[in-house]
Design goal:
By secondary structure, the chain is α/β, with parallel strands linked by helices. The radius of gyration is 19 Å and the shape is globular. The protein contains twelve helices and nine strands. The two termini are about 20 Å apart. It has helices at about 15-20, 25, 40-45, 60-65, 110-120, 140-145, 155-165, 190-195, 195-215, 220-230, 240-250, 265-275; strands at about 1-5, 35, 55, 70-75, 85-90, 105, 130-135, 170, 185-190. The chain folds into two domains: about 1-80 and about 180-300, D-Maltodextrin-Binding Protein, domain 2; about 85-175, 3-Layer(aba) Sandwich (D-Maltodextrin-Binding Protein, domain 2), CATH 3.40.190.
Length: about 300
Amino acid sequence: MRLALDWTPNTDHTGFFVARHEGWYRDAGIDLKVLPYATAAPETLLAAHQAECGISFQDSMTFAVAKGADIVSVAAILQKTASAIGVLASSQIQRPRDLDGKIYAGFGYPNEVPTLKAVIQADGGKGDFKVATLDAAAYEALYNHQADFTIPFTAWEGVEATMRHIDLRYFRFSDYGFPEFYQVVLACDRQWLDKDPDAARRFVGATVRGFQFAADHPDDAAAMLVSENPGVFDANPDLPRASQEFLVQGGYLVDADGKVGTQTLERWTAYSKFLFDQHLLTDVNEKPITVEPDYARLFTNDFLP
């Protein structure tokens, strides 16, 4: 089976590479082919049946399903949001409402500005700020004082900034009433799940085992991630271990009961409904959908061990 990555290998993917390194896919009768990220998003590959499963996110999956993609999340890789509003700790910005009138270095995703407005307004601000879409250059723009704030992924760019001795101050969305969400999920082609549910259960079971190992043994898991991807981390060989430890210490990989992969309707509804209410969910013709999605169809726990 084929797994589509969303980016170059990183600690969002550790469980897959642990399971492959330890032979757990082989033991489950799964010949896993990891598709490196190219130009097509994993959701696009799944909808076109060019991959059986892929790395997605609650927002990206909700967007894709609104456009007609027949895909579903079978496991939460990160149980909560690891992204946050980041500013330089040396700045005068002490809270979200201080972001009014400032420059945001962004990435061009449709939900960025509505999310920032909601957080700023919840803190008593107006939600008025300037936007500079810089994609991967957004972080350096912040560090070099060319922008006032951005949204780092704290488990990777945030850890990397700390290693570079760049001090950041974070405002976490959920601290200001914004709904918590599953930042990273494992999405699969629903047709494949229906066609071969036994193979799907064996694949998800081995994957969950890999992420459970990563949650219990972060240093060993990070070493396996590096070993399975020679050359990828040469520029910063210590980053995978530091990131993996960050995810474990922050409780990102497991739910309140210590389990990997579980998902709830409450969490899927809260954030995906925000996207609907903001008219961000569009059909294949880019028209905002007018009927609220069936949030229960966005995910399933049926394939978890």
